[in-house]
Design goal:
Strand content: 25-35%
Radius of gyration: 20 Å
Order of helices and strands: EEEHEEEEEHEHEEEEEEHEHEHEEEHE
Largest sheet: 5 strands, mixed
Strand order of the largest sheet: 1-2-3-6-4
Distance between the termini: 23 Å
CATH architecture of the largest domain: 2-Layer Sandwich
Number of domains: 3
């Protein structure tokens, strides 16, 4: 272990326990960052020292490599929530569940449909996380970021600069944002809400959590929904001919439906198995490896492509 100011850089840290999938080798170097200011400081330091690095947050939708990671791994987890009128200023590493609970307790509507979704606010914004026809983009007012390219970090820690991006600059779409394609690291976000009925919000939240627990059993080792659902409007008439129209929900064809139609439930490669009750749920049965995940994903993609002419795309991220 080495010290970087008040932060500890740890050597040879197992990545598996840091993800809900419980897969992955060792991180040669690992550091946990709990505040935006510390993340800016770390970005300045790694760029000053030309040190390669990779970043993740809650670990709920990531597949770490079996061989581990040679570059510095930075985990952004922790932070604060500040309430300003009907807005919240939330650090990127704060758990999404904490923000949902806080908003409901204040009678703020907008996030109740995201109840039970794991991970952090930063991670949710990157993937525009959502459920039941709603997504986090609906409450995002603006996002503070630091650009991780060296040209934006001129002289180490003092040269690390942050800036704010409006919701339109985030380029949100279904499970997408600009943060998936540009070297931007989210520091914090301002979320905007409308006043709602707290009792009604609590009722909705409890119902959604119960539904999620049917799919995601307590202690299950999985990264959430593996493949993205398909936007029905993006499909051709020929593709739609093979789709049961009653299965289209909120304008999307569930990936789980397509997968179940081609008989994927219960399929297994190595230690990774598709749940017997849901075709889009990859479960680590105890000895699963990233290589098993990729092999199984390739098989499932091919089955859906051959039957429906539709290309599935991962919602998870291969680290």
């Amino acid at each position: 272990m080495r010290k970087l100011n008040n932060l500890n850089i740890l050597d040879n840290v197992s990545l598996a326990p840091l993800s809900t999938f419980y897969i992955g080798g060792l991180a040669k170097e690992y550091i946990k960052v709990e505040s935006p200011e510390k993340l800016v400081e770390i970005v300045g330091w790694v760029r000053e020292n030309n040190k390669p690095f990779k970043v993740f947050a809650g670990g709920s939708n990531v597949v770490f490599p079996d061989e581990g990671v040679e570059s510095l791994v930075i985990q952004v987890l922790g932070g604060s929530i500040k309430v300003e009128g009907e807005r919240m200023v939330v650090d990127a590493g704060v758990l999404l569940s904490d923000v949902v609970s806080k908003s409901i307790s204040l009678g703020f509507s907008g996030l109740e449909s995201l109840s039970g979704i794991p991970g952090t606010v930063g991670g949710a914004i990157v993937g525009n996380a959502g459920a039941y026809g709603h997504a986090i983009r609906e409450v995002v007012d603006k996002v503070e970021i630091v650009e991780a390219e060296k040209k934006e970090v001129e002289k180490g820690r003092e040269g690390s600069r942050s800036r704010w991006m409006s919701d339109s600059e985030c380029k949100f779409s279904y499970r997408e944002s600009v943060f998936k394609h540009k070297p931007y690291l989210i520091l914090r976000a301002v979320l905007k809400f409308e006043q709602g009925n707290r009792e009604e919000l609590e009722r909705i939240s409890k119902e959604i959590i119960k539904k999620r627990e049917v799919k995601y059993h307590p202690g299950i080792r999985c990264p959430g929904s593996f493949f993205k659902n398909i936007i029905a409007a993006d499909l051709s008439r020929e593709q739609l001919k093979n789709i049961d129209k009653s299965k289209i929900v909120y304008g999307k064809v569930p990936a789980g439906y397509l997968l179940e139609e081609v008989g994927t439930k219960g399929m297994r490669v190595g230690g990774i198995e598709i749940a017997s009750y849901h075709g889009n749920l990859f479960v680590n049965k105890g000895e699963g490896r990233a290589s098993d995940v990729k092999t199984l994903a390739k098989i499932l993609k091919e089955k859906v492509r051959n039957r429906f002419g539709i290309a599935l795309e991962e919602e998870i991220r291969y680290f």
